[in-house]
Amino acid sequence: MTSLVSEPFLWRWIAVATAVLTVIVIGESWIGHYRSGFPLRAQYAPLVGGMALATACVALALVPRVEWVRLAVRWAGWVAVFTGVIGAGYHHYYGIVEKAGGYRWLLHHLMYGAPQLAPLALSTAGALAVLASEGVASAAVSPSASVPRLALAVVAIALAGAVAQTGILHYRGAFNTPFMYAPLALPPLAALGTGWLALAPAVGLTGVVRVLLWATFLLGFVGLGMHLRGLDRQMGGLHVFLFNLLQGPPPLAPAVYATLAGVGLLLLRAW
């Protein structure tokens, strides 16, 4: 690894990317929970926790050397991690276990119920925020190679989870265009490469992983455009925006790929 690990600007940009990821999660969470009518007050938790996390990450990017800001990021990050895990439990219980047929109708509930892995995106943002705070702190004292490796491992796991959730949702959409197979091709390779690099850093592998992450980054923007186009192609298009927003594809979801790949590319600068 190079001396870039010791540069605070690396972690400041990761804090910015984490704030962007959190805003995406907040947006998708609001759409999904508004669709169901917020029947549980707990459905407001990711919105509140996400806003606190995004604010703390922006503060870390602006004033990384202020101790209380780093402390706030750690607290907000851990709260986001646990909120996401609890949310995944809620989605599993209320989306599968409590439903008629339970696990015997698993495929049916996966097709029509809440996205099972979606809340873990907030946990990912929280974990990256905590590691960004630790990275800033260690850069000011004694640079550590373990923090960027842990962050890269988080990116790898998050990419794998995003691929799994995308596979379920695109299967729900019957893969009505060949482009819907793209997230199941490139991002898994990027997840495998980043995970391998996190476990066993190798200079020869860095170039390959960088190419895969750039491809995933671009794929996220292409998918974002296709999902937004999907809203416009619904009956009534943007003239009935709110209805199609709730009935169409999740508009911001593909941007998660771009954000995670961006974090991975930033971390590779430390190699």
Features:
mainly alpha, 2 domains, 73% helix, disordered N terminus
Please give a structural write-up.
The chain is mostly helical. The longest helix is centred in the N-terminal third of the chain and has 31 residues. The protein is globular.
Average pLDDT over all residues: 92
Order of helices and strands: HHHHHHHHHH
Q: Into which percent range does the helicity of residues fall? A: over 70%
CA-based shape: globular
The radius of gyration computed from the alpha-carbon positions, rounded to a whole number of angstroms, is 19 Å
Layout of helices and strands, plus pairs?
Layout: H1 8-36, H2 45-62, H3 67-97, H4 106-112, H5 120-141, H6 146-172, H7 186-199, H8 203-232, H9 241-247, H10 255-268
Q: Can you describe this structure in just a few lines?
A:
The chain is mostly helical and 271 residues long. The chain contains 10 helices and no strands. Helices cover 73% and strands 0% of the residues.
